[in-house]
């Protein structure tokens, strides 16, 4: 599904040979964001419940997948900037923060206008971030999953 979302976002960003429609460009940015969000959710679920379908219980995997919240993910990704994590994870987290902001503008700001270049850049950013997440070591992917799902508590 993640690769299908990236392919769809790319088609939307590059669909029109002349003047692209704003609806296509907006959906491209939004779809690119969701591709990265789903890659992060899959990473959390694979880490918590198991990546191999034959060796995991589907219901807990789905619950872990659905447990990732957009706002919490953004906050965790912003916090990662100040933590000692692998560069690939840090770059994926940074891309998520930027793409989430771009998605908000694309989805909710009626005055926001996009260029084809901006939409293509968003799609490429999501694709690169997904690649960095996928190529990270299992140790780094586990650490990222924990940072995404476990809220840091203050000293009590």
Number of domains: 1
Largest sheet: none
User: What is the strand tally?
Assistant: 0
CATH topology label = Four Helix Bundle (Hemerythrin (Met), subunit A)
Describe the oligomeric state of these chains in a short phrase.
Answer: single chain
Helix content: over 70%
- What is the CATH-assigned architecture? Up-down Bundle
Q: Mean pLDDT, as a whole number?
A: 94
CATH class: Mainly Alpha
Q: How far apart are the first and last residues' alpha carbons, in Å?
A: 42 Å
Radius of gyration: 16 Å
Which consecutive residue ranges, at least 5 long each, have pLDDT under 50? none
In DSSP terms, counting alpha (H) and pi (I) runs of 4 or more, how many helices? 7
> Strand percentage, roughly?
under 5%
**SSE order:** HHHHHHH
Structural class: mainly alpha
Shape: globular
Structure notes:
- With 156 residues, the protein is mainly α.
- The protein has a single domain (2-149), classed as Four Helix Bundle (Hemerythrin (Met), subunit A) (Up-down Bundle), CATH 1.20.120.
- The chain is built from 7 helices and no strands.
- It is globular and about 50 Å long.
Describe how the helices and strands are arranged:
Layout: H1 2-14, H2 22-49, H3 58-66, H4 70-80, H5 87-108, H6 116-135, H7 138-149
């Amino acid at each position: 599904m993640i690769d299908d979302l990236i392919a769809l976002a790319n088609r939307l960003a590059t669909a029109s040979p002349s003047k692209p429609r704003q609806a296509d460009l907006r959906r491209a940015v939004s779809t690119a964001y969701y591709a990265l969000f789903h890659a992060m959710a899959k990473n959390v679920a694979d880490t918590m419940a198991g990546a191999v379908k034959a060796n995991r219980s589907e219901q807990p995997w789905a619950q872990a997948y659905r447990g990732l919240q957009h706002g919490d993910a953004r906050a965790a990704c912003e916090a990662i900037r100040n933590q000692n994590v692998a560069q690939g994870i840090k770059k994926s987290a940074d891309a998520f923060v930027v793409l989430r902001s771009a998605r908000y503008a694309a989805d909710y700001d009626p005055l926001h206008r996009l260029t084809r270049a901006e939409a293509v850049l968003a799609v490429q950013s999501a694709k690169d971030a997904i690649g960095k997440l996928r190529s990270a070591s299992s140790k780094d992917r586990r650490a990222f999953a924990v940072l995404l799902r476990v809220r840091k508590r203050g000293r009590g």
